[in-house]
Write a structure and sequence with these properties.
Layout lengths: L11 H26 L5 E6 L5 H16 L3 E7 L8 H14 L4 E10 L2 E8 L28
Parallel strand pairs: 1-2
Antiparallel strand pairs: 2-4, 3-4
């Protein structure tokens, strides 16, 4: 702890010590508030096989929609076992179809990439647009009725 000396008659070290402690307290308090405001991002993983059937695909698609609705990121991957690595194209088509079906809910962070025996794609939820109601159109100003001119002669 740093102390600053002042030339005061009454115990100046005590006053400075209190000021420094108060400053450190406020600093810790601000850091704690900033940490509380941080949003932790969860990444949920969904695993497919290269020849996943429609029912399994739809089941996993429904789960992915739920994850995205909760604000989590989704990492979908196709895992190739043994000779199934020959079906790389099917895996890529499956992941692109998955991304296409979720385009209303998510945006693609990373296109399908083959890493070893896995082909992965990463999706993050779209930001919820504030429900802005279109402002009611203002009625056109009604021209004031002019006084009819009368010719009184």
């Amino acid at each position: 702890m740093d102390l600053v000396k002042f030339l005061l008659m009454l115990n100046p070290l005590f006053v400075v010590l209190l000021i420094i402690l108060k400053f450190l307290y406020q600093l810790k308090k601000r850091q704690k508030e900033q940490k509380a405001k941080q949003v932790k991002v969860n990444v949920k993983e969904i695993r497919f096989g290269p020849q996943t059937d429609d029912h399994d695909y739809n089941f996993k698609l429904k789960h992915a929609k739920g994850f995205l609705a909760d604000g989590d990121k989704v990492k979908a991957y196709v895992f190739f076992k043994g000779r199934s690595i020959l079906f790389k194209e099917q895996g890529e088509v499956l992941l692109l179809r998955f991304a296409n079906d979720l385009e209303d809910y998510a945006k693609v962070d990373q296109m399908p990439v083959l890493e070893g025996k896995r082909m992965t794609i990463q999706l993050s939820p779209k930001k919820k647009e504030a429900s802005k109601k279109p402002a009611a159109p203002k009625p056109a100003p009604v021209p004031k009725a002019e006084k009819p001119e009368t010719n009184e002669e």
